[in-house]
Design brief:
The structure holds 2 protein chains of 2 kinds.
Chain A: H1 2-21, E1 24-30, E2 33-39, E3 47-50, E4 54-59, E5 62-68, H2 74-77, E6 86-89, E7 94-100, E8 108-110
Antiparallel strand pairs in A: 1-2, 1-7, 3-4, 4-5, 6-7
Chain B: E1 18-27, E2 32-41, E3 44-53, H1 65-83, H2 91-97, E4 102-104, H3 107-122, H4 132-137, H5 150-157, E5 166-168, E6 171-173, H6 186-201, E7 205-210, E8 213-218, E9 226-231, E10 240-246, E11 250-255, E12 260-263, E13 266-269, E14 284-291, H7 294-307, H8 309-320, E15 328-333, E16 337-340, E17 348-350, E18 356-357
Helix pairs in contact in B: 1-6, 3-7, 6-7, 7-8
């Protein structure tokens, strides 16, 4: 009996843990306002989001900026992110960041 | 559009002041609350993660993390307003435009300037705050990039040289035509000031990341060390070379990958060699400095990058014998070696099989 309870608890804990570590949510902000929050792991079909100056491509597990109306297009060059990371466009005040739940992740990245 | 990791030379850019861009909070065990605040300043993205008391709770011993984060952000914006060289109205721009030989300056100018001149003296001028005319000529301020001719650079170099500057009391003495740029120290100084403010507010812990220029305060909830990943210079947006475990520390990286432009097949990056007027080219891809002061970590990482690997390592060995103000470093070279200095060997975990670790 005790063993069964423990087993159930362990299974529940594992499930919870894997849930947490698999979190892969992209958050898109424009000018400080939340535009959209997308769980990238639940995306099955690719779609585009038109933010005016930028076009964002949402794909299963990852996200990227594919078009930008500024000269150097650094946000496009940053490529696809997923599991972690950030893409920013300073001229258009767009920020896309990935909230991943893994507890072992670094507190910060020096670049 | 600008990359997030664009750092140096951008104490510049008062372009975007967006306080209170993003605010999020979440509760942690033990009564602590995490407040994350993200905003654009100094031409990059800043993230403050502050651990403290939740609004509305009454633990008088612990700081309210939201209020503390708000104050730290305001302080960073205040420093940006003083040190920006893209805003004509900043204190630094007014000083640069002044035809007087002497000008009184505020602490926000004098403190980072003193630190930068100290590093300049120690490194034989590898860091030089008088490079503004060169930075402008390459287009790193306007972002209209160009490659200046040798003649143009030689002419501009006549007005470059940190030894032309003197601090006398609260006054800066300089020959007209000498222009200051704090791009190599402004973010480090802002991080240092934010750290001191947060410490003074009594927060439990905090991570300040100013466009990848990182400083930690106090303790992480749970008491573990802070984990700071170091970007892979060959894949900075996605990869890391490893992770440093640190207590309270400033961690800053300088690398040619952070801001650059290309003409044909040549890449020109933003870390200029103050003697040549050209982007510093040597065996290094990046230098990460770890020390107890943000301004010093920022300025030193630039200086060591300009010096090149053998000279930078010599400098490390020389200063590690001194009792005051030591630093540690991680060097990444073009021949794919990662060299970690002795004081960091225990706290660095390698994470990239592209490199040989030493």
């Amino acid at each position: 009996m005790l063993f069964a309870v423990l087993a159930v608890c362990a299974a529940a804990l594992l499930l919870l843990r894997s849930r947490v570590s698999e979190r892969n949510t992209a958050v898109i902000y424009r000018d400080g306002e939340l535009v959209e929050k997308i769980d990238l792991n639940l995306v099955t079909q690719s779609r585009e989001i038109d933010l005016g100056g930028n076009v964002v491509l949402v794909e299963p597990g990852r996200i990227s900026v594919i078009e930008a109306d500024c000269p150097d297009k650094l946000c496009v060059r940053q490529g696809k992110i997923g599991g972690g990371g950030m893409i920013g466009c300073l001229p258009n005040k767009i920020l896309i960041s990935i909230e991943s739940g893994a507890g072992s992740e670094a507190d910060a990245v020096v670049r | 559009m600008l990359k997030l990791n664009i750092r140096k030379l951008s104490g510049a850019a008062c372009l975007l002041l967006m306080p209170a861009l993003i605010f999020s909070g979440c509760s942690l065990s033990g009564g602590n609350t995490e407040t994350k605040k993200t905003f654009f300043a100094m031409d990059t993205v800043m993230t403050l993660t502050v651990y403290g008391r939740k609004s509305g709770t009454a633990d008088a011993k612990m700081a309210n993390s939201e209020i503390a984060a708000e104050k730290a952000a305001a302080r960073i914006l205040e420093i940006e307003a003083a040190l920006s060289v893209t805003s004509d109205t900043s204190e630094l721009s007014r000083l640069n435009a002044s035809e007087n030989e002497t000008a009184e300056a505020s602490d926000d100018v004098l403190i980072p300037l003193g630190a930068a001149l100290g590093i300049a003296g120690e490194t034989g001028g590898a860091l030089d705050v008088t490079v503004l005319p060169l930075v402008r000529a390459w287009g790193f301020l306007s972002k209209e990039y160009r490659v200046p001719s040798r003649e143009e650079l030689d002419t501009l170099l006549q007005n470059v040289g940190y030894s032309r500057l003197r601090i006398s009391g609260r006054e800066i003495v300089r020959p007209p035509g000498t222009e200051l740029d704090f791009g190599a120290v402004a973010k480090g100084y802002a991080a240092q000031e934010a750290a001191e403010l947060l410490r003074g507010e009594g927060v439990a812990g905090a991570v300040i990341s100013l466009g990848g220029n990182v400083q930690t305060v106090g303790q992480k909830p749970g008491g573990e060390k802070w984990r700071i990943a170091v970007a892979d210079p060959l894949d900075p947006d996605h990869g890391t070379i490893g992770t440093l475990s640190v207590g309270e520390a400033a961690v800053v990286t300088s690398g040619g990958y952070q801001r650059f432009f290309e003409r044909g097949t040549v890449r020109y990056h933003h870390i200029l060699d103050p003697k040549k007027g050209m982007p510093a080219e040597n065996e290094l891809l990046s230098v990460t400095v770890v020390c107890d002061n943000g301004t010093k970590a920022d300025g030193l990482s630039t200086a060591l990058f300009v010096m090149g690997f053998p000279a930078a390592m010599e400098h490390y060995k020389l200063q590690s014998d001194l009792e005051y103000g030591g630093f540690e470093a991680v060097f990444v070279t073009k021949d794919r070696r990662v060299i970690v200095t002795d004081g960091l060997k225990q706290s660095f975990a390698a994470a990239n099989n592209k490199y040989d670790y030493e």
